[in-house]
Every structure is written in structure tokens, then in C-alpha cells.
Fold:
Amino acid sequence: MDNKTDLIEYLLRLGDSALIQGQRLCQWCGKAPALEEELALMNVGLDLVGQARNWLEYAAELLDDGRDADHLAFRRDERAYRNLLLVEQPNGDFAVTMLKQFLYDAWHLPVLQGLSQSSDERIAGIAAKAVKEVTYHLRRSGEWIERMGDGTEESHKRMLAAIPEVWRFTVELIAFDASEQHLCEAGITPDIASVAAQWQAKVEQIFTSATLPVPAAPNYFYLNARKGLHTEHLGILLAEMQFLPRAYPDATW
Amino acid sequence: MQPGELIASDLGARPAQPTDLAAAWAILAEVMDPEVPVVSVVDLGIVRDLDWQAGHLHVVVTPTYSGCPATEVIESDIREALELAGFKAPQLERKLTPAWTTDWISASGRERLRAYGIAPPEGSTSKRSLLGESPQVVCPQCGSAHTEVLSQFGSTACKALYRCVDCREPFDYFKCI
Structure:
């Protein structure tokens, strides 16, 4: 693969992950545990969908095959999606939702901080903007993990139950493939080992203060979002998200 | 290029007049943010630059948040106000870099936010306010510094929700980013 193909793949990973995480958060709309949480969940989702649009617009320009960001979001099938397996997992209870958010945010922030130094100016610009937003996301999700982990007997129990639900999917946050290696060597993307170390340190810090055990490093998982091999949950999510644009292609209102 | 675009883009093209840019700034100072209708797009620092390019006014706009749903509305409001004032087919450019920051909100914009009941951003983003402890936010109703954060995310992406411990009023705080 050349650098352009690698870059398109990478932009889809970033954009799809933000979009699917945003869509999952939208599923809380109207049924969050409190009004303040409802607003927060929707605001974080909104930031992520906005970031997804920026990444997918750039991917569409590089693809240069007539598709735009909307087309990429609403007309691609599950196998063409490149989002992290973590973000497509069902919301579960509030503990699972916030744990997914925290594990994603703790990875997202160092990735974006690295990308804001990218040799690709377009990437650096989008990332510099997103860093400001994700700083707030991580602060909030980290506080929730501490509050629930070190909270009541019930909230602690829920957090303990949430960890094994999603932990195995974090393997994708700390592993990298040849395509990312090329981009990193070209100065376009940050060093994955450094991102992984920052992610690990943040997780250990928050889990420790939340009185939660830090599980052992996740093992290789047979599914691989980088190759479009997803869990069964993504298809159902896409069916809902893509229904309208697929049923009424090119509709305007 | 779409059919007809060349013709449309040339429509109303004219050389710049010496007063054009000042007039355009004055018009934009009256275009209010749709979600905070007391501060203008100039006060908020959303309009970054104006100049004259190829016979048309060229407006550089920087959105506040990546997912700000008001971005399209703001751009269409800007376009409409300028066209009503006689600027034909103004060219809008959306620019992400440098990223928008609350440091760009003008002093008068901050005062108007406060008068409207929204606490303006405290401090500057170069300080630790982004990463560290919550900043001390003054209640826009009674002026007390005795306030607490209810939620880092308020009624819009750019605001957090606070409560005044003295007058008990909840209020929005324009987050420092």
C-alpha cells in the first residue's frame, strides 16, 4: 500500500470510531439517568460526530471517487467500516457506557495530541480543534469512573461487572499494523507505543483511584476492525443509523 | 465545477470600494449567534478575517466546536446579512486552523454574556484551566464567587452547568477552550 491508501484507511479508523461512538451516545437520548447527564452525553456525541465529519470529509477528498462524507457514513456496509470494536459495543448500563467512553477517551486524547503535530497540516488542524473537546470528554468520563468505582456498593459492583464486558476490545488501542507504521515513519501519525503507554498510565491512574483492579493486558482477538471484521453489534447499529438515507437516497429537506 | 457556476459566481462582481470592509465589519457586528443571541459573530471571534477577492467580499469563518450544529445557521445568517446590505454573493471560507478559542471573545462580548446570565470564560486557555482544576466562576446573577459545577456539559457544547451556592440560581458557564 502507498501512503495515500494508508492515510485513507487511517482517516476512516478515526472518523468511523468517532461516528460510531457518537451514535452509541445518541441512543441514550431521552433516557439518561439525569437531565445533566443527558445533556453531557449528547454534547459529547455531538463533538464526536462533528469530528467524524472532518475526518470523513478529508478521507472522501483523498478517495476522490465521487463519494462525500455523508456517503461514507450512510452508504457503507459493515465490512467497510473501520471503527474500533470497543465503540460499537452495546451501551449496557451506565457503568458500561462510561467505561467504554473512558477507555476510548484515554486513547483518543493522546492520539489527537500526537496528530496535532502531524506533518500533514489538514490532520494537524482537525486534531488541534478536537484536542480541546476531548480534553473535556476525558475529564468527565474519568471522574465518572472514580465516582462509580469508589462509590456505593452497587456502583462498585456494576463497575466490576462492566470491565470484563469490554476489556478484551482494548487490544486494538495498543496494537498497530504495518499501515500505521508507515504513516508514523512519515511523521503523519503519532508513535503507537507512546500512545499505548499514555493510555495504560491513564487507565492505571483512574482505576487505582476508583478502587478498581487493572486487568492484565488484553490478548489478541480474532476479530479485527482494521480489516472490517466486526462484532455482530455493528450491523444492527448501522441498520438503524443508515435507514433513512438508504430508504430515501439523496433526499433533501 | 457545476454548470452555471461560473456565471453565478461572476454575478455582481465589482472592484472593492475603500469603505467596503469597514461596512461589512459593521454589518457582521449585528449578526447574532443563534444560540446566544446577545453576542455577535464578531464578538465571539467566529469571523476571523474579511478581504476582497475576485470582485467579491471574502469572509473567513472559524467554527467554535467541531460538531457545533449552529455552524451552518451562522454561515447562512452571515451570507444573508451581507447580501441584504448589498454585498453580492459573498464568498465564505471555513477555516479550522488555528482552532477557535474562547480567548477570542471580545471584552464587550464577555460583558454581554454576563448581562445575559451566562458566566463568561475565566482565564485564558494558555493557563491550566483546560486540564486542571475547575476555574473559579462568578455567578452572573448575584456576583458571588461561591459557585459549584453541576455538569461539565450544559445546554450547548460550549457551556457547562453551574449553580450559585449563595443565591441558589443555576447558570450556564461559557467553557474555556
